[in-house]
Write a structure and sequence with these properties.
The structure is a single chain. This protein folds into two domains: 18-169, Reverse transcriptase/Diguanylate cyclase domain (Alpha-Beta Plaits, 2-Layer Sandwich); 176-429, TIM Barrel (Alpha-Beta Barrel), CATH 3.20.20. With 430 residues, the chain is an alpha/beta fold. It is built from 16 helices and 15 strands. The chain has an eight-stranded mixed beta barrel with strand order 6-7-9-10-11-12-13-14, surrounded by seven helices. Strands 2-3-1-4-5 form a five-stranded mixed sheet. 37% of the residues are buried. The structure holds ligand C2E and calcium ion (2 copies). One calcium ion binds at residues 335-336, 356, 358, 392. The site of ligand C2E has 24 residues, from strand 7, helix 7, helix 8 and strand 11.
Length: 430
């Protein structure tokens, strides 16, 4: 029995308050464990809990939270003490096995049990736990510092549903500095209109005519350097700020099309990348339409690109939203096809207009006759289901010929142009 007397309990879960947890854990970690055991601070939360609350309501959300507490704290003899600092966050001090296999098995069980016990009730969301772990090195470490580290590990999982937990490593401190630097550069750029929208042409190989364009963002830093998406997209996705970026790009594209229509020029359809993070927002489609409406332009000029991997991990919630976008009159494409391993069966039921074949297809086709057969077979299949197809990342005329031989007339790639700043694109193509 601990000597420390708990002052206050959380009404919802019956767990002690955060301050009481800290005191209890400080006391407990002084105890001797057997040689094959170690202390670990574990920080847990439910991925997309905000949207679960929005979709199912708070009462049902609270039931899910209680299920998490039952699995990870109440019915769990490894848990020494735990608390709910806020919302769906659970912190606990655990004794875990030093044997890596047993340790791994124990932690995987939290996620597996949480999913299997709740999947039936929460069919329209993908259930997943974010679980960060800090293993104590000795009893002198302060629990608050351990909590910080476990939380850092937990946050590093954002958006990655492939792992059941992450263990803290010192490298994360460096990652954290980089993350806050990039978010701060992004916020400054957003304020100063220093987010640039580049356009890459989509061209018909036979007619050599422009058939569309893809809008791709760049960030202009204060020292004038242009930052490429590879540097900031993953960070904006894991922090949720990608939503702001995508709306910025949308507004810029809607405005460009409006201007063209005003001067009597016929615009082409422009595609905008829609991060999978949007799909956790139950009001996603309403929010997009609200931003779109004031521009008074026909929706047929706008296509939304959603990456293939999102169709797999978030398939339950994605289809309905895409149907709504299509019903409004927007076009929808599956981006990076070939990188996410969606089943061929799913292709036949997805509400999409265009399949964008990832560059890897063209690359493999130049290297192997089998790769060529796969590409031409898939293109023919897509066309039979009535999808438009386009090959991405076509770099030279040999690759362009391959696309054509495989039955694809539309390409996007360096063979025509790299993404161009808006004024250059308009000057050259419109
Ligand atoms: P993506 O949507 O697949 O866009 C195509 C990427 O391929 C672009 O990279 C483009 O510059 C590059 N590319 C085009 N032609 C060729 C070629 O012939 N060869 C090769 N090797 N590459 C080519 P970029 O502009 O660096 O963008 C990278 C990714 O970042 C994009 O991939 C997209 O997923 C993401 N992204 C960029 N802007 C945004 C945005 O505003 N919102 C969201 N959500 N994602 C964005
Ligand atoms: Ca894209
Ligand atoms: Ca792509």
């Amino acid at each position: 029995m601990p000597n420390y007397k708990i002052q206050q309990y959380d009404k919802l879960t019956g767990l002690p308050f955060y301050e009481d947890f800290l005191a209890l854990a400080e006391e407990a970690k002084e105890k001797q464990l057997s040689d094959d055991e170690q202390f670990a601070v574990i920080a847990l939360d439910i991925s997309n809990f905000k949207f679960i609350n929005q979709i199912y309501g708070y009462e049902i959300g609270n039931q899910l939270l209680q299920s998490l507490v039952n699995i990870t704290v109440i019915d769990n003899y490894h848990c020494i003490t735990a608390c709910r600092p806020y919302s769906d966050h659970i912190l606990g001090l655990y004794k875990t096995s030093k044997d890596p296999d047993l340790f791994d098995y124990g932690l995987k069980k939290y996620n597996d049990k949480f999913i299997s016990e709740n999947t039936k009730q929460f069919q329209s969301v993908l259930l997943h736990l974010q679980c960060g772990v800090y293993i104590l090195k000795d009893s002198h470490e302060k629990i608050v510092a351990c909590v910080d580290r476990a939380n850092m590990a937990r946050r590093s999982m954002k958006g990655d549903y492939s792992q059941p937990y992450v263990i803290f490593s010192e490298e994360m401190y460096k990652g954290k500095e980089k993350t806050s630097e990039i978010i701060s550069i992004f916020e400054t750029a957003l304020k100063n209109n220093d987010i640039l929208v580049y356009y890459q042409p989509k061209v018909n190989i036979r007619t050599k005519r422009l058939e569309g364009a893809e809008a791709l963002s760049r960030i202009r830093c204060q020292d004038g350097r242009i930052m490429a998406p590879g540097e900031y997209i993953p960070i904006l996705e894991s922090s949720g700020r990608i939503i702001d970026l995508d709306f910025y790009v949308m507004k810029s594209v809607f405005g460009m099309i409006k201007q063209l229509l005003e001067i009597g020029s016929e615009p082409v359809t422009v595609s905008v990348n829609l991060s999978r993070i949007h799909f956790y927002n139950s009001r996603m489609v309403e929010d997009i339409i609200k931003v779109f409406k004031p521009y008074n332009i026909p929706p047929k000029y706008i296509e939304f690109e959603v990456t293939e991997s999102a169709f797999i991990s978030e398939s339950g919630i994605i289809s309905d939203k895409l149907i709504e976008l299509k019903q409004f009159g927007f076009l929808v494409s599956m981006d990076d096809f070939g990188t996410g391993y969606s089943s061929l069966h799913s292709l036949s039921v997805l509400p999409i207009d265009v399949v964008k074949f990832d560059r890897s297809f063209i690359k493999n086709s130049t290297r192997s006759p089998k790769g060529l057969k796969v590409l031409s077979g898939l293109i023919s299949l897509c066309k039979q289901i009535d999808f438009d197809v386009i090959c991405e990342g076509v770099e030279d005329s040999d690759e362009e010929q391959i696309a054509l031989d495989c039955g694809c007339e539309h390409v996007q790639g360096y063979v025509y142009d790299k993404p161009l700043p808006e004024d250059e694109f308009l000057l050259k193509y419109i």
